[in-house]
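Next up, a chain.

===
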Amino acid sequence: MADAVEAARARIDRALNDLERKVRELKARPAPVADDDLFAPRSGGGGGADSARVEALETAADEASKALSRAADEVRAMLNGDA
């Protein structure tokens, strides 16, 4: 069972690393908002690039959430002796 837990931990670590990498890549892009705050009030136009960036962040967060959920389910199953 320890090997299975280690494998699940490795998957969780990979998912977190992927999420952190995607967030760093998205943050590295120039943002149309001066202070790079997604929740700052928008001034004027330029919403197309901003909405694409928000969509990319939401997609990355959704992918990470699903990966972490699967890994958590696997860990629970292993701890309960189901696997």
Notes: Residues 2-33+45-79 form one domain. Residues 47-79 form the longest helix (33 residues).
